[in-house]
Every structure is written in structure tokens, then in C-alpha cells.
Design brief:
The complex is a heterodimer. Chain A contains four helices and no strands. Chain A is an all-alpha fold. Chain B is an all-alpha fold. Chain B has three helices and no strands. Helices cover 79% and strands 0% of the residues of chain B. The radius of gyration of chain B is 17 Å and the shape is elongated. The chains are: A mainly alpha, B mainly alpha. Chains A and B meet through α1, α2 and α3 of A and α1, α2 and α3 of B.
Chain lengths: 116, 94
């Protein structure tokens, strides 16, 4: 049983690292704020959740220590990180940051004109 | 095996943080910089978790939750400041 937990924890940590690397690559390479925010908020959230679950499993099989704070942190990050991404995107839109010049549709523009 | 994976993960996350510093310095708009800072905070959480596995202690796991909460509050405050120009609004005077 210990070995199973160990392998699962290793796989979780590797997956989380991979997802964080992918998020960084997206933040470096994508063309405007909104696409960068899209890359950052989703894949970083899943990556950090995987890494924290791996940490939790490690302490559970190695020490028999059930650390509820790590689980609480996983839940908290799952709840708050997309909200932070949404608020950043919204503040970028309403403070007039330009979209990528090859994007084709802007459904919010009418609402923005009413607000101004 | 597990040690090797931990080292690989720590090096990869450190490199990711370094690349985010580039976005933090260069980013054309203010929101880019805040996205980079938020992601650096999350990478910091991962580094704390992996370091506590390497050191084989669970004394640092409270810091994970704390860093998560602080990164969230900081990002919210910055987003509100950039959208409305102030963080805590004054009372409405009629």
C-alpha cells in the first residue's frame, strides 16, 4: 500500500510541474493580456492542486500524518484562483487594454460604451 | 527515484519563476505584471511544498495556506485599484 501511495504521489508531482511549465510557456508566448490570463489562471490552478495533493499523500504514507491544512489549501486555491483571474481580465477590459489585432469578436463592447 | 523527481520539479519550477520575472519586467500593460506576480506567488507555494518534502518536515505546511490567501488578497486589491482608481471606497454622501 505504501508503494502505491509513493508512485501516485510521484506521478502527481510530475504532472503538476509539467502543468506549471506549460502555464509559464503560455504566459511568455501568447499575444495579449486575455490569452495570457487564460493560460495562467487555468493550468496553474490545476498544477498547484496536483503538487499539493502529492505533498499530502507523501506525508500520509511516510509519517501517517493527515495534514488537513494542505487539503484546505487545495480547496481554497480551487475557489479563489479563477476569481482572481476573472477580476484581472475584467479590470484589463474596462481600463482599455487592447485585444490582439487578429481577434474577431468583441461581445462586451456595447456594454462598455453604456458604462462610459 | 523520488529524490530525483523532487530535484527535477524544483529546478523546473525555479526556471518557470525566472521566466515569469521576464514577463514582470517587460509586460506591456499593468495587468500583465499582476498576472505574472500572481503566478509567481503560486509557484512559491509549490516551492514551499516541495521543500518541505525534501526536508522531511511538516512544520512549513501552514505557510502554504497563508501564501495562498495573501496572493489572492493582493491580486484582488490590485485589480480593483486598476479598474476604479481606489481600493477602499469612501462612504456615499447624499
Amino acid at each position: 500500500m505504501n508503494e502505491t501511495f509513493k508512485i501516485v504521489s510521484m506521478i502527481l508531482i510530475l504532472l503538476g510541474t509539467f502543468l506549471i511549465l506549460v502555464a509559464t510557456f503560455g504566459i511568455l508566448r501568447l499575444p495579449d493580456v486575455y490569452t495570457r490570463n487564460h493560460a495562467a489562471s487555468k493550468s496553474t490552478t490545476l498544477g498547484i492542486m496536483f503538487i499539493l495533493l502529492g505533498t499530502f499523500l507523501y506525508f500520509y504514507y511516510e509519517h501517517g500524518h493527515f495534514n488537513s491544512r494542505v487539503l484546505l489549501a487545495v480547496f481554497f486555491i480551487l475557489l479563489t484562483s479563477p476569481v482572481a483571474g476573472h477580476l484581472l481580465s475584467r479590470s484589463a477590459y474596462y481600463s482599455g487594454v487592447k485585444m490582439w489585432d487578429r481577434s474577431v469578436e468583441d461581445d462586451l463592447s456595447k456594454e462598455k460604451e453604456e458604462k462610459d | 527515484m523520488f529524490d530525483l523527481i523532487l530535484k527535477i520539479a524544483l529546478i523546473a519550477i525555479s526556471l518557470a519563476t525566472l521566466c515569469l520575472v521576464y514577463r514582470l519586467v517587460k509586460g506591456p500593460s499593468m495587468q500583465d505584471r499582476i498576472i505574472a506576480l500572481d503566478t509567481i506567488g503560486i509557484n512559491l507555494i509549490a516551492i514551499v511544498a516541495l521543500t518541505s518534502i525534501v526536508l522531511d518536515t511538516y512544520a512549513f505546511l501552514e505557510a502554504i495556506l497563508l501564501l495562498g490567501i495573501l496572493a489572492f488578497i493582493g491580486t484582488i486589491a490590485f485589480a480593483k485599484f486598476l479598474e476604479k482608481g481606489e481600493i477602499i471606497e469612501r462612504e456615499r454622501d447624499l
